[in-house]
Amino acid sequence: MLELDALVNQVLNNCDIVDAQHAGLFSVCGLALRLRDLYKWEKGLEPWIERESSEILEWIGDKEQKWDKLAEKQLADITILRNKYDPFDARGINSVLESYGLFYGGGYAQSLKPTFFLATIEDKKEINGCTVYLLSRELARDLLTIPALTQDNCILIRQESAKLFLWDQIFYIKKSGRYALRFALEKYGLKDQNPKEIQRSLARIVAAETETYIYHELGELKDTTFDRDLWREIIATFPHTPVELLVRTVKDLLADTNHYGTLRFITKERKTASLAFYVAFLDGLIKEMFPEIIETFKEFTHTRNWHIIEQAVSVGYNTAKHYAEVISSIYQNGKQKNNMKWAENEIAKHLLEPLGLAQK
Fold it and tell me: What is the pTM of this model?
């Protein structure tokens, strides 16, 4: 018989270990936001509920004390029905857990931070030849609030995390994205757009936007422009560097703009609100690489001309394709030279510096 509490505690223990060992990857503000999300999950709070600062600070203090004790610990195997599994053997673990309506996540996120979670399965379906799991209640998780991801060629939608993620995006949006956000919320019937109105509609909006998460991950799985194995190799070679950020951004832009991806789906289905959300939340390096969608969207709000959006998406795809080809070529040359520092500098000179992102 499956001992659920014991399983949850094992996963939580590994979550605490990786958080203890990798919290330093984040800026002070970045860590604070992630701790805030983790606190809300642990306490079972809705995304919009805010507790007294003193209560949160006490919780953070307790968490940091726990992390101090775990900083040198090794990740533990996951024991299920007396069988032990490596914590990264997600396929093996899920071969047992799926029959119990559970799904385990184990892998690496940005900067190669290990990440783990355990959730209940709400639904399982096939889209364009890919298996999609809709996950509901999260029983264990770490610092990372990830709404969607791929694992073992499957797409995972973490609905609890997606709800928290979208709320954070809405309420921490930059000034430049507010006009597109207003447009998106109006399309969902939110004329007033005060926090109470958004609270009442959040679950409905998350459910409606789930497809955009799915098609981003589908676009990533189906992408053949940036070889997946080579992409992983480059990330492993340059972890926690501007090169890693660039490589991940290029892959994301390819996933958004290729034939199977987010924006192709949005344009095909004429999902106006989803398009507005995409533009509203566009940030960081991808915003520098894909400025066409921002200006085109402004025109779209007046004309509702989907053809100009399709043209902008094609431009974005060609840009990402060019970056992928240049990165791949430089990296392969660096391997031949047995000089990864040369490759790093060349990528910085030809691609990062023109984007205003200098190599450290």
Answer: 0.95
pLDDT, averaged across the chain:
96
The CA distance from 130 to 219, in Å, is: 11
Separation between Cα atoms, residue 216 and residue 326, nearest integer Å: 23
> Which residue(s) pair with 151 in the sheet?
154
Q: Which tokens is 300 given?
A: 């779209």
Q: Is the pLDDT of residue 292 over 70?
A: yes
Burial annotation 18-36 (CB, 10 A radius, 16+ → b, else e): bbbbbbebbeeeebebbbb
Could you tell me where the DSSP H helices lie in the chain? 4-22, 28-43, 53-70, 90-97, 159-171, 178-187, 195-222, 228-237, 242-257, 262-269, 272-280, 284-289, 292-303, 306-337, 340-347
Contact predicate 76/70, CB 8 Å: no
- CA 109 – CA 111 distance, rounded (Å): 6
Could you tell me the residue ranges of all domains in the chain? Answer: 4-161, 173-355
In Å, how far are 112, 215, 217 from 261, measured between CA atoms? Answer: 24, 5, 8
Q: What is the DSSP string of 131-145?
A: EEEEEEEEEEE-S--
